[in-house]
Amino acid sequence: AKNHGRGVHRFFEPILAAQIRDRRSLEHDLRHAVERNEFRVVYQPQMAIDTGIVVGFEALLRWQHPERGNVSPDRFIPISEETGSILGIGEWVLRETCREAASWDKPLRIAVNVSAVQLHAPGFAELVHEVLFTTGLSPARLELEITETALVRDPVRALAALRRVKAMGVRIAMDDFGTGYSSLSNLRAFPFDKIKIDRSFIRAVDVNHETAAIMRAVLGLGRGLGLPVLAEGVETSAELAFLGAEHCHEAQGYLLGRPGPIAAFAEHTRDAAGR
Ligand code: C2E
Ligand code: CA
Ligand code: CA
Ligand code: CA
């Protein structure tokens, strides 16, 4: 058994070592990515389903690595959360998006993803306040998207931070609703202004009976709690038609627009007459 164990060890070691080296190099590069100007923000429209009007945008981070090319946020956000570099990155995203939104002709909403690490860091509410003041963005136009995992780490601290930003007039959305362990009790315990239902519940909602039943239940929940519901990841017009018929408030997804540079959405952010 001992020899067998050593053999397995020798077999896996090079692969593991390469993975660790790869991870270390990403950790290192992430620490310098802000100052090296490697991040940019893309914007994805959020639409009111009954009117078909774009009411806001979600800001999504993109990292253009000098050698690796585009690295997905699903890969680099967790690493930056573990090393703490998310604090500088998150501050950059918040500042960049608030400045951008403050420059629009129309007072559309801007939704910014906030990591658990940011929410729990001392001074988070002060940072939001300072960025709003510096950029001149009206607090009512800022929405922070928080996932449930952000709340479980230290619920008392998370609640205190959310209350402080809410007191400024900033809105709070529960992101990826339905994918966590205790979505329902978290809805009651935290001061959310909106439910963003995860795209896994939207997929084929128009043909799948189980998915449709869950979707109707969430919409009923939203109505009962007085919270608007946004459906994420809408890809087909049949999905959108189902959501409209069930009185879902807002939708976001490839059908309505892929995330892109804000210039691609100037028809929504700018007044007519080519300003
Ligand atoms: P999320 O907050 O749930 O963002 C939605 C993700 O779904 C985005 O992926 C978006 O591009 C994608 N998406 C939008 N519409 C559709 C659709 O119709 N179909 C499909 N299949 N996907 C769609 P993205 O941009 O790769 O971001 C992945 C995750 O990374 C985000 O999930 C969020 O958790 C995180 N993230 C992105 N930007 C930031 C950021 O600035 N800060 C933090 N803390 N996290 C971020
Ligand atoms: Ca989000
Ligand atoms: Ca989401
Ligand atoms: Ca997600």
From TrEMBL:
Protein name: Diguanylate cyclase
EAL domain sequence ranges: 23-273
